[in-house]
Amino acid sequence: MQKKLILHLAAALCMASGAAVADNVLLINGSGRTPSPSTTTGTTNNWLTTCGAGHTVTVADTPPASLAGYQQVWDLRFANQSPLTTADQAAYLAYLQSGGRMFVMGENINLGARNATVIDFIDTAGGGALTFVDPGNAQAVTGVPFTDGGLSTIVWWAAGGTTTPGSGVFAASNANGGSAIVWRTGTLANAPTGTLAVVFDVSFMEPPSRTPNEDQFFRNLCAFGSMRGGGAAVAVPANSPWALWSLACALGLAAMVILRKRRHN
């Protein structure tokens, strides 16, 4: 009886550790209006490969009528053909106000229509009135979890950015400004329970053009997306303590079951 109880307790602990890392995630990729289908397909597939493990992922062309039920929303659209509409911004604000975790993509100076609406949305959410800038591609990486994996610098392919991070903080920046900004819980004045990340570059998600540092930054961004409040990480990156714990659980339970069967034979 005691051994059976121990087995059940171990199973419960393993199930709890797995449940803690699973999110319902929405990817909005703008596939119906993209000027570069290969970029859109590449970033979507690479997100699924890099970030998707353990999550239930829905891919949509445009934002659905309701964002309820999603713990993470990633707007991967980047082109001028896909600005954030007034309806998009209202839905995104309500989502952040409900405690959601969101990523929004911007781009370089050539995609001003998209960038302007991203900056408008940041202001609407209470993240500050930001000014677009071309900061230069070589930037320092700062802050948890973006420095995970020993990452300290990144050279973007062709990024845009802003002169300041508003009420957020730069995750990648130089003396001219920064291309990656994050707002943790409590830093968005009009959505204090939400978290937001914005990167003004799409190439770091593209398999053909990514450098090792861009790849690591992407992985770290995935971890930020799975952080409750931008604080306690619950993602399961490869070889992380959570991943090793999950593996140990599976192997341990399997061994216990085998031993139990042998003793009954």
UniProtKB/TrEMBL annotation:
Domain of life: Bacteria
Membrane spanning residue stretches: 242-259
Signal peptide region: 1-22
InterPro entries in the record: N2O_reductase_N
Keywords, comma-separated and alphabetical: Membrane, Signal, Transmembrane, Transmembrane helix
Protein name as it appears in the record: IPTL-CTERM protein sorting domain-containing protein
